[in-house]
Amino acid sequence: MKANVTLDLNVLESMIYFWEASKDGEKVGEQYIMTIAEDANMKSVYTEDFNDESVRRALSAISNREIFDGSKIERKFWNNNMWMMDDLDFMREMIKPVKTLNISSLIENIDSNVEELEVVVLPLHTETHYIVDNKLILNFFSIRLDFMDYSIVTFDNMPLADFIQKALQEVASK
Q1: What residues have CB less than 8 Å from 32, skipping those under 6 apart?
Q2: The pLDDT value given to residue 1
Q3: Can you tell me the distance from the alpha carbon of 53 to that of 142, in angstroms, rounded to the nearest whole number?
Q4: β pairing state of 4-8 and 116-122
Q5: In the sheet that 143-146 helps form, which strands lie side by side, from edge to edge?
Q6: How far is CA 124 from CA 53, 74, 80, in A?
Q7: Handedness of CA 65, 58, 125, 71 (dihedral sign)
Q8: What percent of the chain has pLDDT over 70?
Q9: Which residues contact 96 (CB under 8 A, 6 or more apart)?
């Protein structure tokens, strides 16, 4: 059967505000940070070592300009977020290919066992992606741009669209 596919960038959109506001020295409220940390898609990839409290602590430390001390995976998450704030223009360039992705064209040749597929882009830590139920969850920080040509976008050493198409095939066959 042919599946419908959607792209969920809600948390990523919230993070754009967080990165820009924090870079400008604004304090982002704890409630806003908790909205990100408690998002259902974020919760679906939490583990014993990385959970909503990890996200809250890391983002609060950034917003409050505090030193962050956490586990290796929490520090990776904190470091990835600091990287985005370090160069907001580069962050915007990373977001462009995700926002302009024609996700529907990627499933034209995919026969699915499920009616709905979802691609979710989240700011995560060390893993490049997760497959949870009918969702392909991509780690935004794993998107790579060619420094000589920002139009060349890869994910896990493959062109972004090719990676998503291949992973969606895996999701659709479950």
Answers
A1: 14, 18
A2: 67
A3: 22
A4: parallel
A5: 143-146, 149-155, 158-159
A6: 14, 10, 8
A7: positive
A8: 97
A9: 150
Q: Pairing mode, if any, of strands 149-155 and 143-146?
A: antiparallel
In terms of residues, how long is the chain?
174
The per-residue pLDDT for 56 is 98
Q: Model-level pTM?
A: 0.91
Q: 47: which residues sit within 8 A by CB, 6+ positions away?
A: none
C-alpha 115/C-alpha 91 separation (Å) is: 33
Q: How many CA atoms lie within 13 A of 25 on its CB side?
A: 0
Q: For 15-69, how does the pLDDT look when each residue is reduced to its tens digit (9 = 90+)? A: 999 999 999 999 999 999 999 999 999 999 999 999 999 999 999 999 999 999 9
Task: Quote the CA–CA distance of 44 and 13 in Å, as a whole number.
Answer: 18
Long-range contacts of 141-145 (CB under 8 A, 24+ apart): 141/80, 141/83, 143/94, 143/97, 143/98, 145/90, 145/93, 145/94
Confidence of residue 108 (pLDDT cuts 50, 70, 90): confident
Q: What are phi and psi of 130, to 5 degrees?
A: -135, 150
Q: What is the pLDDT of residues 78-94, one digit of tens each?
A: 999 999 999 999 999 99
- Pairing state of beta strands 135-139 and 116-122? parallel
Q: Which amino acid is at 172?
A: A
